[in-house]
Structure formats: C-alpha cells, structure tokens
Design a protein that fits this description.
The chain has helices at 22-27, 68-75, 110-122, 142-147, 167-176, 190-200, 236-239, 250-269, and strands spanning 2-9, 14-20, 33-37, 45-48, 51-53, 58-64, 81-82, 84-89, 100-106, 126-133, 151-156, 163-164, 183-187, 207-210, 226-229, 232-235, 242-244. With 275 residues, it is α/β, with parallel strands linked by helices. The chain folds into 2 domains: 2-89, Beta Barrel (Elongation Factor Tu (Ef-tu), domain 3); 94-207, Nucleotide-binding domain of ferredoxin-NADP reductase (FNR) module (Rossmann fold, 3-Layer(aba) Sandwich). The strands form 4 sheets. A 7-stranded mixed sheet has the order 12-11-10-9-13-14-17, sandwiched between helices. It has a 5-stranded antiparallel sheet with strand order 5-6-2-1-7. Strands 4-3-8 form a 3-stranded antiparallel sheet. Helix 5 (167-176) packs parallel to helix 6 (190-200). Bound molecules: FE2/S2 (inorganic) cluster.
C-alpha cells in the first residue's frame, strides 16, 4: 500500500498529491509515468510524474479532477493509502547539456515539464519557460520554476496574467528578438504542441513533445496511444511518452483524442468511468 504523505489544492480543478512509493522514487527519471489504482476494484490510470524525492522515497503527481478516479483521489486524505502505484513506466527524457533550452507548458503540462527542467538546471543549462493557461487561477508551478532560476513568461487566454494570447505568441516574440534555443520541450494540449511545432519545424529547432494526453491504459495493450512518428508507428506509453515533435503526425493523434474524449464522457454519464 502506498501512503498519501501530502496533498495540496492548486486551484479549483487541480490538486497535487505526494505518495510514498520507495521503488518508483528510487528509479524514476523525468519524463516517466506511473499507473495507480485507488483500491482493488479501481481502474488503472496513468499519471505523469510531476516530481520525486529519492531521500524521502516520495513521488508527486498532479491531476485535474475530471473523471471518477480523480474524484476519488480528490476525496482521499493525507494518511490514506493507494492500492497500486506501479512504475516507473515509459522512457525517460533524453536531456542533453546544451546552452539554452525553452520549456513550454500548457495547463497541466507544467507538471511533467518540471522534473525535466530541474534536471537541466542541475546540468547547468539556461532555461526559459513559457506557461500558458486559461486564466491566472489555472497557472501551476510558476513559483517552482522560478525557484530553479528560470526566466518565466506567461500567456493567458483572458489576459488575467502575462500576455493575453497564446504561448506561441511569446515563442514568436522570443525568436523575433533573436534568442537562440538549442532545443524546445513542449508539453500541453495536443493543439498547443502542434502550434509550437508549426513554428519550430521550419526553423529546424529540435522540439520534444509529450504524448501523455493520448494514453488510455498506459500498458501497451489497448492501442489507444498509437501514433505515427516519421515512417514509424509508435505507442506513446511504451515508446514514449516523449517524441521528436518535428516528426509526429499531430492530425492523426488529435483525431484519436477526440474519439476517446467522447467515449470517456459517455462512460462517465452511464457511471462506468471508473471502478
Ligand atoms: S495507452 Fe494503451 S496501448 Fe498505450
């Protein structure tokens, strides 16, 4: 059993949970994910690793309360225990010692981006961060990125903080200012990652994207996370979740996500979206 050590409400829709999971905490690397089950009858749901502490043997996840499992997680308290917490799964991020990297996070994408940027900062890489969100309320981890000594820019849909507009408006601005990035890591909604790649691809800026939004069971069995990367067919949960964004067929995965969203809504409506 895996004890909940800490829990925080980050905003009206998003929570952070710290879980004691010694095996995962000792082995995980940025970019990987876990699959948890709240109890014996619970569904297995993948969550990206938002942070880990090898000494305390803890792993942090951040989730949006959107379906049955996250509603149950939200109702659990510090001291409660999760039945399964399996991992680390997926491939670790390939992080290189470069001069300057740009991290772009949309919404919850800030969670898996954080451990990558932490590692890059430990390697001495300069990191600029762009955080995009609906409004100020939904910006997460801004202070955590600031604590790593990153330059932060913010874009909100309603202009309640930072630039009113999209992360890509800031990206274009930075490029127009002549700032040179050795690589870009973009994690967020598929539409956002596609828009980032539309800018970085013609400039040939290596861009890594994370396809965790299309994972369903995270086990390699359901086929729901199939994606074309260049000439190859890959599975986000086994071969990723991170891929060379310049090669990902985003139109294909955006279509697939639409299909699953409808199914998930239907499952929730008929009461099957969970245990
Ligand atoms: S999420 Fe089911 S096969 Fe990858």
């Amino acid at each position: 059993m895996y004890e909940i050590i800490d829990k925080k409400v980050l905003n009206s829709a998003v929570e952070l949970m710290v879980v004691r999971a010694p095996f995962v905490a000792r082995r995980c690397e940025p970019g990987q994910f876990i699959i948890l089950r709240v109890d014996e009858e619970g569904e297995r749901v993948p969550f990206t690793i938002a942070d880990f502490n090898r000494e305390d043997e803890t792993v942090t996840i951040i989730y949006q309360i959107v379906g049955h499992t996250t509603e149950v997680l939200s109702s659990m308290k510090v001291g409660d225990k999760l039945c399964d917490f399996v991992g680390p799964l997926g491939k670790a991020s390939e992080l290189k010692k470069e001069e300057r990297v740009l991290g772009i996070a949309g919404g919850l994408g800030a969670a898996p981006l954080y451990p990558q940027i932490r590692k890059l900062r430990e390697m001495g890489v300069e990191c600029d961060i762009i955080i995009g969100s609906r409004s100020e309320e939904f910006i997460i981890l801004e202070e955590s990125f600031r604590g790593l000594g990153c330059n932060i820019s913010i874009a909100t849909d309603d202009g309640s903080k930072g630039v009113k507009g999209f992360v890509t408006d800031i990206l274009k601005d930075k490029i127009n200012q002549g700032i040179k990035y050795d690589s870009v890591i973009a994690i967020g909604p598929l539409i956002m990652m596609k828009a980032v790649v539309d800018i970085t691809k013609p400039l040939n800026i290596p861009t890594t994207v994370s396809l965790n939004p299309i994972m369903v069971d995270g086990t390699g069995m359901c086929g729901g996370c199939r994606v074309s990367v260049g000439d190859e067919t890959k599975f986000a949960c086994v071969d990723g979740p991170e891929f060379n964004g310049l090669l990902v067929d985003f139109d294909e995965v955006i279509n697939r996500q639409g299909i699953y969203k409808k199914e998930e809504e239907h499952m929730c409506k008929i009461g099957l979206g969970g245990k």
